[in-house]
Amino acid sequence: MSRLEIKNISAKVPEKDILKGLDLDRDTINTIMAEHGKLITEAKEKIREYEDEIAELKGAGDKSKEIQKELDDLKKSVADAGLY
After folding, report:
1. Which residue from 10, 49, 55, 64 lies 20 to 30 Å from 1 (Cα-Cα)?
2. What dihedral do alpha carbons 48, 49, 51, 56 form, nearest 10°?
3. Does the model's pTM come out above 0.70?
């Protein structure tokens, strides 16, 4: 889920005006908004962790390709030299 999608999700949650329209008292509204803020922060942190992990795995995939090419080159060199 991209950061833009997260912003869209957070924009869809009840805002204070909506909660006020439900005749909720100030303390209840503040509690709901605080909890919502915590959940959004946690979700954003998880997304950042997943994005970092994806980047790390992509880097590992690239490194794996480099190692495989080196191995293939070494096998070819050994075969060309008649050692295998």
Report:
1. 64
2. 140
3. no
- Region 23-31: what's the mean pLDDT? 92
How far is the C-alpha of 84 from the C-alpha of 26, rounded, in Å? 80
At 40-79, the pLDDT tens digits run: 999 999 999 999 999 998 888 888 888 999 999 998 888 8
Using CA atoms, how far apart are residues 25 and 36, in angstroms rounded to an integer?
17
In single-letter form, the type of residue at position 17 comes to: D
Place of tokens 């942190």: 45
